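Sample A.
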Amino acid sequence: MNTDTLQQNPFSLVLSGGGALGIAHLGVLHDMEHKGLSPSEVVGTSMGGIIGACLSIGMDEAMIYEQIRSFVKVSNWIKFSFSGNAIVDNDKVASIFTTLFGERKMADTQIPLKLITTNLKSGKKRVFSAKDNVYIKDALLASMAIPGVYEEHTIEGEVYGDGFLCENLGISETSYKDVLAVDVLGEHSFEKELPDNFFKTHNVLEMFERSVRLLIYNQSRTILSYTDKNIVLIEPQTKDFSTYQFHKHEAIRTLGLGLL
């Protein structure tokens, strides 16, 4: 399927998680605006959920990017925690979400929104949508809560964490037959060939991140192999950047340009 079909039919926009790599979604949104492509629903996980939520309440790409640039400094949105189950306290992030979304609930959007999270007790996927009487900011705090990094988030007595644990690219949650999916942790997010000394010279964090990317990539490919949707899949070349490099937002944003 090509993008001409997306201009003719209603379609779902799916934005994957990926930390700072998710800023590449903005490049795709920029091109969508110039092509006159407007989704009929948005499905997002983690960083893709944050950008998707902004889009769903009427923000254009330039407005979303301006918001991201305003908090790329780590000190503006990270507060380290020395107790509990995570190294980052969510207070500053929660304050940013309150500024962006106020008291809007999942039903209070211009474009229907679905946010993917994981119930950390049952291990099952939980998708928040307009059917849920839940604040957007709460669903986002759940969807981005990487275990061990960000604090888990409790909603209506249940404890939730990052949606990538179940489905990083939310293809299976789309309502429409035609889908535009952007996967920043896709085929081009890791090196296919490694230098001989890779396992001796790279640090544990780099090894861990590459392993997680491979895990998520294979998870998404399995889901894609079972879908009957008509999918335009965009996979930006994110392999040269890390999921925590928010300060490189300008370069990462350009990775999503020119792919439609």
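Sample B, a different protein:
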Amino acid sequence: MWHNVRLLNAIASALVALVVLAALAAGGHWLIQRPVFTLKAIQIDGDVSHINGPTLRANAVSRLKGNFFTIDLDATRAAFEAVPWVRHASVRRVWPNQLAVTIEEYKPLATWNDGRLVSVDGELFAANLAEAEDEGKLPEFAGPPGSEKDVTARYYDFVKWFAPLNMKPEAVTLSNRYAWSVRLAGGVQLALGRERTPETLATRSRRFVQAYPQVAARWGNQIEYADLRYPNGFAVRAAGMRFLSEEQAKKLATAPVQKRDSQKPAAKPAAPAKRSQ
């Protein structure tokens, strides 16, 4: 072995290469640990109407570890996306000691029945309700777990279908049996039932919209409830309507009806003439 010049040269070259690599690694480690690469600033861009500096510092910045070279960008993005109101965050390095973070906020559309909010894209998120309703009360959504996107899509349909009445939905509910109900502005509660076909809800809504002016002309703002599940019409309940109990309805149905004789009463027969004696 010691007489093999080629082998000795190869071993020597390998040792030199290892020494050089070790020196480079040590130098690189020393270099990236210099204070000049310590993160000094984080630039925040994007829609941040509901996010402020103290919130970011408390929920995201305090969790960041590393400097310009060693910080984990995926972990940094996850830290920012854990902040309330943040839907998506993108993170990039800015030479030599900064980060640039672009934030996309959730846009609130409604409240969900578990206390969370629903975004305009049908996504659930947790945030302060008072902040979400700073421009007005949000509609109320409710449905089985995992149905938030379906309820959101139907809400947009109901807004379009009831637009001719200038009555926006204030609440949309999908029951555990997948039956739909809507409360319109003004308090009118509508029962639309289950979707038998793709056109079921649209047909029932259009029927109500077409007939509502005549119904409103009779009852005005007193309409409280409408059941739209009938095949060719709907039933309405209004304040001030008098409802009979089942017993009262039966009595009314079985009461005898007095008939009037349309003919004149027959004339009494004339008394026989007396004979003259």
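Observation for Sample B: The first helix runs from residue 5 to 32.
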